[in-house]
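ok trying again, last paste got cut off:
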Amino acid sequence: MGVGVFNFRQRRAINHAKLSIGTTAGGVVNCQLSIANPLHPRISVHNLQRKIHVNVAALHKFAAKVLRHCLQLRKRKQTDLQELREVFVWLISDRRMSLLHRQFLGQTGPTDVLTFRHGEIFISAETAKRHARLFGNSIMHELQLYIIHGLLHLHGFDDRTPAEARKMARRQEKILSDCSGAL
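nice, full thing came through this time. structure:
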């Protein structure tokens, strides 16, 4: 089975020109051209796996809150988050994650989260369950961390070096603390 289910297409907010044309009482044409402000991206959460029960509505509510939080962070050098129209979070199986991991990173086996710059975050629910057990967390806690991780990547954070990974982990924990209290 391929990964053709996932449409990899860009969804960037565009500054659309808005042209307003009207007439005055005297019949004179009144024309005004303005640029609409780009909208902040929307976020959606989709469960494409069947093995792990996930409260998608609660996860979506959390993801929306984290998205708003991330948009208020200082803009990074290569940020894409503010330019996107929509962010998709896909909860998938280890099998699908393994396919994506091999196809896009050349590595075998599943990983916890993969983020693509055009606004798609793929999360392995099975890996989240294993990590939750390993670290003594709930599966919801792990899924929330993965959503934060993906959104931080879209905002320009990286974790390629140990120092970057530590900085990103601290930011994740801070965001988790800030955003999970009111849920």
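cool. Residues 42-180 form a domain with the Collagenase (Catalytic Domain) fold (CATH 3.40.390.30). The longest strand covers residues 17-23.
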